[in-house]
Amino acid sequence: MIDMKDVWKTYPNGVSAINGIDITIGKGEFVYVVGPSGAGKSTFIKMMYREEKPTKGDISLDGTNLAKVKDRNVPLVRRKIGVVFQDFKLLPKLSVYENVAFALEVIEENPETIKQKVMRVLEIVKLKNKARFLPSELSGGEQQRVAIARAIVNNPNVLIADEPTGNLDPDTAWEIMDTLEEINNRGTTIVMATHNKEIVNTIKKRVIAIEGGRVVRDEIRGNYGYEI
Ligand code: ADP
Ligand code: ADP
């Protein structure tokens, strides 16, 4: 599914964020990415959705070498990858329905297909009854669930989440985990960068720890392993 071979990333300012990573993530896995601030977690996952390109090495996603994808072809690749962020990134003037439909309208699906797909994912994230609401009328957890619905509406093989519970209170964070596990159970691979020690230590999954741009630990059913 995702295969990194000797991946390095140096930013234009000279900071070397990733220093030789080899990793394979299989179909259907659920992986936490942990490590101290500045360790390279965001850079590591940004390369998985081709937000950043490695300076050296190869990243294969379902056989596509992301390191070689040209800027103009990024939208094509993104259809295979869903991404959610700590700050949701919803469009504030669009309803829940429209926020989710947007990704499909961009690729010119027909209106009936769009409606079916949007209502199907709103059902998965349990927000069918709030389809007409604006993001500002929802709780933080609901907004994150809209973002998750939008990320999966194209049926991606991989969902990448960068600190998806970072802005949420603990109860809401657990709700988001229920949603992510449900999506994972339906077959989507999930890669989630997180600082949430309780979640990592309770909902046991593979843990990849990054420090100084290198993988320092990779455990099936691992622990968070840091104090905060
Ligand atoms: P983490 O997500 O673990 O906090 P990052 O991947 O954000 O780590 O950052 C790793 C290193 O790369 C840090 O030293 C950070 O300052 C640097 N860095 C991150 N993004 C950029 C950028 N766009 N330009 C230059 N340096 C960056
Ligand atoms: P179902 O029949 O599956 O329950 P509905 O067609 O009744 O689905 O729609 C459920 C919600 O989605 C309603 O709040 C509806 O207003 C909203 N909705 C459906 N289609 C659209 C659309 N094209 N644009 C905006 N909202 C829509």
Annotate the secondary structure layout.
Layout: E1 2-10, E2 16-25, E3 30-34, H1 41-48, E4 56-61, E5 64-65, H2 74-78, E6 81-85, H3 96-106, H4 111-124, H5 140-152, E7 158-162, H6 170-185, E8 189-193, H7 197-202, E9 206-211, E10 214-219
Parallel strand pairs: 3-8, 3-9, 6-7, 7-8
Antiparallel strand pairs: 1-2, 1-4, 4-5, 9-10
Helix pairs in contact: 3-4, 3-5, 4-5, 5-6
This protein binds adenosine-5'-diphosphate (2 copies).
The site of one adenosine-5'-diphosphate has 12 residues, from α1.
Question: Would you kindly provide a brief summary of this structure?
Answer:
This protein has 228 residues and is α/β, with parallel strands linked by helices. The protein has helices at residues 41-48, 74-78, 96-106, 111-124, 140-152, 170-185, 197-202; strands at residues 2-10, 16-25, 30-34, 56-61, 64-65, 81-85, 158-162, 189-193, 206-211, 214-219. The model has no long low-confidence stretch (mean pLDDT 96).
Account of the protein in words:
- Keywords: ATP-binding, Cell cycle, Cell division, Cell membrane, Membrane, Nucleotide-binding.
- The protein is 32% helix and 26% strand.
- The chain contains 7 helices and 10 strands.
- The strands form 2 sheets. Strands 6-7-8-3-9-10 form a 6-stranded mixed beta sheet, sandwiched between helices. Strands 2-1-4-5 form a 4-stranded antiparallel beta sheet, with helices on one face.
- Helix 3 packs across helix 4.
- One adenosine-5'-diphosphate binds at residues 95, 97-98, 115, 119, 131-132.
